[in-house]
Structure formats: C-alpha cells, structure tokens
Specification:
about 35% helix, hydrolase, 8-stranded parallel β-sheet, Hydrolase TatD, TIM Barrel, alpha/beta
Length: about 220
C-alpha cells in the first residue's frame, strides 16, 4: 500500500507514494495542468485579488472539472499576507460555492483567521468536507475545529515532541498527513505518527486510505 500525501507543492513522486500536488491558479498560469496525476487547484489567499477574481474564477471553474482534480484549494484566509480579510472572505466564498457545485472537498490555508473561517462555514452551511492543511496549533483549537465539522491534515509539526498536533493525533483516527513544501519525506511523517499511535506503518496507511475513501476522493 502506498503512502498518501494529501498536500504537497513538490512535483517529484516516488513509486510508493500518491501525492496530491497543490497548484495555485494565477493570471499567468492557466493551462499547465497535469491531466492524470491527482492534484488540487485553487486561489491561494497570498496571491488572489479582488481585481482578478472574475477572470481567475472563470478559469478555475473550467479546470476544476478535470477528473484528476480531487480538491479545491489550497484556498483560505490569512491575516498576515494577501488582501484584507473582507476581500479574502469574498474570494473564499466563491471557491466554496464552486466546491459545492462540483461536490469536491476544500483544502484550506488558515492563519490567525480561524474564527472567521468557522463563522463562514456556519453561515454558508457548507456540505463538502473542509480540510485544514498543515495544522500546527494547540490541542484545544484542534478539538474546536473537529467539533465544528472540519478535518485536519498534519505535517512536520507532528515531528515535534509534545506538540499540540502530536497530542491530538494520538486520540483521533480521522485525519490526513502531508509534507506541504517541507523537505521531510512523507514516509518520515508516517513513521512518527505510527510511533505516537503505537501502531505499524501499514496499519496507519490503512487508516489514512479508509479516511480518503470516506471523502470520495478516490475513483
């Protein structure tokens, strides 16, 4: 059974890995889209602008229909970079509406904006899965997000002993693992999580793939 890497910006793929490569749609990148490899595509809050939103959404709506596009994103909210939060909420809302129309999960970037993200989810009554990528906050926030119906994907923060991620993942079974743009391998992250949960890597792979299938992400 392969290692499933839910979110990565790397293009290289080992023979024993399934990597969901994340692409950010910008005004100058429309057609460089893999046709077979599983990908996610969206308007990253660092780069998306209200000025270009109509054009970007036009292209995103077409490209997101490809069968190999498994998720919309990464998209989301970031108070440290990008448009102001009111504009980011408009941009994210458009992508949520697209994800709902296509019945595809959202892969979310969120920095210092979790209250706003939770409020938006409740306001729009979002039905598609919403996955927070690279969760690295405290255990309390993690539980709050889970209770609000979000899913979590963990990256290299899980390698830090006694981190909020490590404490949380020890007690839950519905989660995903990723490398994002970090140099660590997905195998290293799987081994660390297997050790935390006191199970084998094979058993962990089975859990991850079962979660993946529940979200109807595999053909």
């Amino acid at each position: 059974m392969d290692f499933l890497n839910l979110h990565t910006h790397k293009t290289s793929v080992k023979s024993d890995e399934i990597n969901i490569q994340s692409l950010s749609l910008t005004t100058d990148v429309f057609l460089a889209m893999p046709k077979k490899k599983p990908i996610s595509i969206g308007l990253h809050p660092w780069y998306a602008t209200i000025e270009n939103l109509a054009l970007q959404m036009k292209y995103l709506a077409v490209l997101a229909k490809q069968d190999n596009v498994k998720m919309i994103g990464e998209c989301g909210l970031d108070k440290l970079k990008g448009e102001n939060i009111p504009n980011q909420l408009i941009i994210l809302t458009k992508q949520i509406e697209l994800a709902e129309a296509l019945s595809k999960p959202l892969i979310l970037h969120c920095v210092k904006s979790f209250d706003e993200l939770i409020s938006l989810k409740e306001k729009l009554k979002v039905k598609v899965p919403m996955i927070i990528h690279g969760f690295n906050k405290n255990e309390t926030l993690g539980r709050q997000l889970l209770n609000k119906g979000f899913f979590l994907s963990f990256g290299t923060s899980i390698l830090k002993e006694n981190s909020g991620s490590a404490k949380l993942i020890k007690e839950i079974d519905f989660f995903f693992l990723e490398t994002d743009d970090e140099p660590n391998s997905i195998e290293e992250i799987y081994k660390a999580v297997a050790k935390i949960k006191n199970i084998t890597v094979v058993e962990l792979k089975q859990i991850i793939f079962a979660n993946w299938k529940k979200l109807i992400l595999l053909p």
